[in-house]
Amino acid sequence: MPALLQSHSTALAVVIVLVVVAMVAWALQLMQAAADRKEFSLMLAGCMVCSAAVGLAAVMVMTVTSADRIEAQLQAGGVSLDVISLPWDASVDSTRRS
Fold first, then answer.
1. Looking at the predicted structure, is the pLDDT value of residue 1 above 50?
2. What angle (nearest 5°) sits at the alpha carbon of residue 14, between those of residues 68 and 10?
3. Residues 6 or more apart from 60 whose CB is under 8 A from it?
4. Measuring CA to CA, how many Å separate 16 from each of 20, 49, 93?
5. Where is mean pLDDT largest: 1-10, 19-28, 74-83?
6. d(C-alpha 23, C-alpha 90), whole Å
7. pLDDT given for residue 45 in this prediction
8. Does residue 31 contact residue 46 with C-beta atoms inside 8 Å?
9. Which of 36, 49, 77, 78 has the greatest number of beta carbons closer than 10 A?
10. To 10 degrees, the CA torsion angle through 49, 55, 61, 63?
11. Residue 98 DSSP label
């Protein structure tokens, strides 16, 4: 069963990469049309499509790379949010100790 899930996740990753490449190509076409026609709205649309492609790629990378680690942590006994240390926690702890 895990091999079947691995092949599905690989196929999904390839499809998402192709979608991201298509979105970047579309964004470049919009930006070229904006430069040709001197229209700001097309340039804005191209930037929005490109940022959506970057967001999709970032979510894909986080999903594909962290799924195995989360599963391993769950099998090892679970994930605890108590061990997470946020940057502002250190300053709060130091003011409480003073």
1. no
2. 35
3. 13, 16, 17, 20
4. 6, 15, 43
5. 19-28
6. 41
7. 95
8. yes
9. 49
10. -120
11. -
Q: What is the distance, to the nearest Å, from the Cα of residue 71 to the centroid of all Cα atoms in its chain?
A: 19
Contacts of 50 (CB under 8 A, 6+ apart): 23, 24, 27
pTM of structure: 0.61
To which residue do tokens 């079947």 refer?
4
Q: How far from the centroid of its chain's Cα atoms is residue 82's Cα?
A: 25
DSSP string covering 29-87, please? HHHHHHHHHT-HHHHHHHHHHHHHHHHHHHHHHHHHHHHHHHHHHHHTT---GGG---H
